[in-house]
Amino acid sequence: MKSVITQNVLDNAMSYEEYKDLVQNLINNNDTTGNSKSEANIYFTKLNAERTKRIEKTTIIDEEFKAEVEKISHPVVFFVIAESWCGDVAQNLPVIYKIAELNPFIKLKIILRDENENIMNEFLTNGAKSIPVCILLDGETFEVLGKWGPRPGTAMSLMREYKNNPDISHAEANKNIQLWYAKDHTKNIQSEFLEMISNINMRNVTPVS
Questions:
Q1: Mind giving me the DSSP string for 31-61?
Q2: Over the stretch 161-180, which tens digit does the pLDDT of each residue have?
Q3: Which CATH number fits domain 7-203: 3.40.30.10, 3.40.50.880, 3.40.50.850, 1.10.150.20?
């Protein structure tokens, strides 16, 4: 599958450190990313910055997964669509960063959803602009090798249940998802990325004649 993500898009995307610097500058100015500058989004930007720091410190990459990531021998891009106010971004982006750091062939690039609607529209989830989305790209051809997001599969199923339950408010559903993340300790996202990366490695194996 050919991607709408080009070299120019990647050149203008942020590194993880640039994204964190942007978020900190926004916090310093009582601001947030995205089209909505609501007090709630400003509050969640601050809260998510603390979540990100905690998850960076506490995430431990499984040894089997680490070994698989280290096998990658061809340039791959983890291209993430995000916003600073999104709780799922705060929970998952630091893990994606830790994975990318395991292999110099992997580059992590980040863009903001509301500033890149044309790209976001190519990677919708059930018709919605859900984030984060991580697109795995061939680093040379920009072919799409995989897509992940906006949250691990188990959490996706839980959120669907909450949305179908009229007795659970949006705020309560989000709180329950954050509690799920705390109990999961990044196991689900690591398992799902292990499957995608294993498929990439199998794809790049030269057949024995």
A1: --SSS---HHHHHHHHHHHHHHHHHHHH---
A2: 988 998 899 889 989 999 99
A3: 3.40.30.10
Residue-averaged pLDDT of the chain: 94
**Tokens at 148, concatenated:** 């992940």
Write down the domain spans for the chain: 7-203
- What is d(CA 143, CA 19) in angstroms, rounded to the nearest whole number? 24
Per-residue burial over 83-102, b if 16 or more Cβ lie within 10 Å, else e, is bbbbbbbbbbbbbbbbbbeb
Per-residue model confidence (pLDDT) at position 209: 39
Residue 78 exposed, middle or buried by CB count within 10 Å (0-12, 13-18, 19+): buried
CB 132 within 8 A of CB 149: yes
Instruction: Please check the confidence at residue 79 and state whether its pLDDT lies above 60.
Output: yes
